[in-house]
Structure formats: C-alpha cells, structure tokens
Amino acid sequence: MTRRALLGLLGLPLLLAACGPKGSYRNIGPEELYQAAAQGALIVDVRTPMEFAQGHVPGAVNLPVEEVARWAKDLPKDRPVYLYCRSGNRSRQAAEYLARQGYANLYNLEGGILAIERAGYPLVR
C-alpha cells in the first residue's frame, strides 16, 4: 500500500469524527436518574406543563421540548444535564439538539417517566 493511501485511510476516521455532532448523550435508567437527582443534578422534564403537574421527578425543572431552542442557551455547558419525558422520545430529541449545540454531559432517561413508574420510584404530584 502506498504511503499516500495509508495516510488517507488513517485520516478518514479523524475526518468523520470532525464532521460529527459536537457533543453527545448517553441513555440511562431510572436508578441512575434518581441517584443524580439525590446529588442535586440538573434534571430537566421536557414534557408539557400539564404533564409536569401530573407528576415529576423530585427537583426537576420543566422546560418543554417545543421551546428547546429558547431555553438551551441558559443551560450550563459545564455540568451534567439529565433529560426525561413520558417515553424517552422527546427527551432524546432534546438531547440530540443540545448535543449539536456543543453540550457534552447529557443523559437521556430511556423509557421516560413510564420506566420510572414501572420501577416504582416516587414522583412529586
């Protein structure tokens, strides 16, 4: 293999990484979310205010996903942000948006509040 071809092959992963999203997020379960909440982490419920009022994670703030472009700029980029919704879909969308904005410490509750209820964790009502 020529030296030029070898350099091209080695450089391809770097090029692809540079073109990818700025940040990333990780899916988590209810146990990890509640551990983070107990330690004072920033927990964001991206559901509607009506859904939030029906029950939410203790200490969570309600920032609807429909307004993510407005509230994203106010979130700290230097601390972890935990996101959840009803099923995990809207919070995943918010996590993807925030990742594109350069947030790196993002956590999405897989299964959403439905997973919390199945696991038996308490909600504020």
Structure write-up:
This protein is α/β, with parallel strands linked by helices and 125 residues long. It has a single domain (21-119), classed as Rhodanese-like domain (Oxidized Rhodanese, domain 1), CATH 3.40.250. Helices cover 44% and strands 14% of the residues. It has 6 helices and 5 strands; from the N terminus they run αβαβαβαβαβα. Strands 1-5-4-2-3 form a 5-stranded parallel β-sheet. α5 (89-100) links the parallel β4 and β5 (106-109). The longest helix has 17 residues, at 3-19.
Concise account of the structure shown:
The chain is an alpha/beta fold and about 120 residues long.
Give the strand tally. Answer: 5
| Unreliable sequence segments | 5-21
Q: In the CATH hierarchy, what is the class?
A: Alpha Beta
- Give the second-level CATH assignment, the architecture: 3-Layer(aba) Sandwich
Q: What is the percentage of strand-forming residues?
A: 5-15%
| Residues in helix, % | 40-55%
Classify the fold: give the CATH topology: Oxidized Rhodanese, domain 1
Q: How would you characterize the largest beta sheet?
A: 5 strands, parallel
Q: What class would the helix/strand composition place it in?
A: alpha/beta
Layout of strands and helices, then pairs:
Blueprint: H1 3-19, E1 25-28, H2 30-38, E2 42-45, H3 49-53, E3 61-62, H4 68-71, E4 81-84, H5 89-100, E5 106-109, H6 112-119
Parallel strand pairs: 1-5, 2-3, 2-4, 4-5
